[in-house]
Fold:
Amino acid sequence: MNYDEEMNNTEVEFGDMPPQAFMLGLLSAFDNRFQACADKFFQEITWKQFFAIICINICKESPTINELSEVMGSSHQNVKQILIKLENKGFVSMIPDENDKRKQRIVLTKECMEYCEKNDAQSREIIWKIFEGIEEEKLATAIRTIMQMERNISNI
Structure:
């Protein structure tokens, strides 16, 4: 594969880069660009803060910081910093676990739910734009590939 042609970029030269290295670089660059785009959209909060909200919302029960760290794929310290900022904005509350008072559960507040509802339609539109022109079959292949990469990371 000629990466230079694929990227239509005359500023860099990929040479004989293995496709695995190219893919990792591409994912990292995409993540940076997406984060900058999402940060502009959400304004009041960052993409990482919104991602934490999404992850809290998909948990079957209010997660602990350790549980949320696992879902987000981030360190306890990074997640804690994100949660402190969300708590200061009134988007999350930390409440003691009913069975183990040493643990704190993270709960989304009414203010957070209202914020998400207010931005839902526009954020869905942005997601559709990002995936515009990508066939569902190609998307499914990309998902399976990245999930396998995730499994491989856990074995390192």
